[in-house]
Design brief:
With 179 residues, the protein is mainly α. It contains six helices and two strands, in the order H-E-H-H-H-H-H-E. It has helices at 2-18, 38-60, 67-89, 101-112, 119-145, 152-169, and strands at residues 27-28, 177-178. It has a two-stranded antiparallel sheet. The termini are far apart.
């Protein structure tokens, strides 16, 4: 229940950040047609606070949190994941979910059952699923073999996404901005 509450709070916060005010333009269209609003980068950046909080508590407990600390970790991590989901939802990329492989799998298997996707959608969904499997495997291996440092993996990955998005989409010219 605590993790669901944390996740919901994260979605709420991210949605408040990414929803564009009526008067401004906040996104840019890159040559491949990708629209990435600056506010998405801001929300993902703020989610790093949840990741960092988790890492600090994890390190403070020597990767062996007690019951109370574990509850706080669940809430903090769920809030960070909710913020990521809420931020990425703003990108309006069909069938891509950052925190649940099952929802993306529904679309891939539905495609196999004659609910056709475009080749681009199919490639994207398969790439998302492969990324989730690779990430989960890497996280599991870290937890088994380098337990103390395991939470650094998602923190660094998210920081990499934020830095890449900030760098890639900062250079949009005024004519490329969308309302």
């Amino acid at each position: 229940m605590a993790s669901m509450a944390g996740f919901a709070i994260g979605i709420y916060l991210a949605t408040r950040i990414v929803v564009q005010p009526p008067s401004g333009s906040d996104g840019c269209r890159e040559p491949l047609g990708v629209v990435w609003p600056q506010r998405t980068t801001h929300a993902l950046g703020l989610s790093l606070l949840g990741h960092l909080g988790f890492v600090l508590i994890w390190l403070a407990t020597s990767a062996r949190p007690g019951e109370n600390a574990a509850l706080v970790l669940l809430v903090v991590w769920a809030m960070a994941m909710g913020m990521q989901s809420g931020a990425v939802r703003r990108l309006n990329v069909s069938a891509v979910f950052t925190t649940a492989a099952t929802a993306t799998l529904i679309f891939v298997v539905g495609d196999l059952a004659h609910e056709p996707l475009t080749d681009e959608e199919r490639r994207r969904l398969v790439a998302v699923l492969l990324s989730l499997v690779i990430g989960a495997t890497a996280g599991g291996l870290l937890l088994l073999h380098a337990r103390l440092y395991a939470p650094l993996f998602p923190l660094l990955l998210t920081a990499g996404v934020v830095l890449t998005a900030d760098s890639a989409f900062r250079t949009c010219v005024a004519g490329d901005r969308r309302a």
